[in-house]
Specification:
Layout lengths: L2 E9 L5 E8 L10 E4 L4 E9 L6 E6 L3 E10 L12 E11 L15 E6 L10 E8 L5 E8 L9 E4 L5 E8 L5 E6 L6 E8 L1
Antiparallel strand pairs: 1-4, 1-6, 2-3, 2-5, 7-14, 8-13, 9-12, 9-14, 10-11, 10-13
C-alpha cells in the first residue's frame, strides 16, 4: 500500500494543550496536527490517512502528550495496482441515520453504560458495501468513557471516540467493516446519546 488508514489516540498528562502528527518516515515533519489534546487527563482520537515512507514506515510526533496509541484500520493501494471495483471508495452526501436526541431509530435509543445497539446500514448503503465511512458524535457526555463501532458479531478491541468527563461534545470519523448481515454494532462504556452520520462506503 501507499497510504495507511490509522486511528491515532493521544493522551495528555502535561496540563498544557498538546498534539500529535503522523507523517511518512524519512520526510520532513509537517506543521499540521492530526489530533489535539486540551490539558491534563485529556484523551483524543482521530482517524488519519497518512502516506507510507519509502522504508515502509510511518513517523509519529507528539508534543506535550504522554502516550500515543495507533490502530491500523486499512490501507490504500498504489497506482501500479490493476484497476478494480473491489475496494473502491464512494463518497455520498451525508445521511444522518441515528440521533438519539430526536425520534430514535426503532430499537436504538441512547446507549446505556456498558451496552450496545445494532443498526442495519443497508440502506442507505447499497448491498455491495463492505465498509461504511461514518462520523460518530456524542453531543453531551455523561462521564469518562468511549464509543466503539464494530461489525456485528465482532469483538470491539479498540475505541473510535474517547471522552474524559461529563458535558463534553466529541466527534470522530470511523471506517467500519460491514459484515454479511449488513449490521454495525455501536457500544459505549458510559451512558450516552449518540449521533451517527454516514458519508460513504467501500465496495
Amino acid at each position: 500500500g501507499t497510504a495507511a488508514d490509522e486511528d491515532i489516540e493521544a493522551t495528555d498528562a502535561s496540563g498544557d494543550d498538546g498534539y500529535a502528527t503522523a507523517y511518512p518516515a524519512g520526510t520532513a515533519r509537517p506543521t499540521a496536527s492530526n489530533v489535539n489534546t486540551t490539558g491534563a487527563g485529556d484523551i483524543r482520537a482521530n482517524l488519519v490517512v497518512v502516506p507510507i515512507g519509502a522504508d515502509g514506515k510511518v513517523s509519529l510526533f507528539g508534543f506535550r502528550t504522554e502516550d500515543l496509541l495507533v490502530d491500523v484500520a486499512g490501507w490504500f493501494t498504489s497506482t501500479t495496482t490493476p484497476a478494480a471495483d473491489t475496494g473502491r471508495l464512494t463518497v455520498q452526501p451525508s445521511v444522518r441515520v441515528v440521533d438519539t436526541r430526536q425520534s430514535p431509530v426503532v430499537g436504538f435509543g441512547p446507549l446505556a453504560a456498558n451496552a450496545s445497539a445494532t443498526l442495519d446500514v443497508v440502506p442507505p448503503l447499497p448491498a455491495t458495501a463492505t465498509a461504511v465511512v461514518q462520523n460518530l458524535t456524542v453531543p453531551t457526555s455523561s462521564a469518562w468513557g468511549f464509543v466503539t463501532a464494530t461489525p456485528d458479531g465482532a469483538t470491539a478491541e479498540v475505541s473510535n471516540l474517547n471522552l474524559t468527563g461529563a458535558g463534553q461534545t466529541r466527534a470522530a470519523l470511523a471506517i467500519t467493516d460491514v459484515p454479511a448481515n449488513q449490521t454495525v454494532r455501536y457500544g459505549s462504556f458510559a451512558a450516552t446519546p449518540l449521533v451517527v452520520d454516514i458519508y460513504g462506503y467501500f465496495s
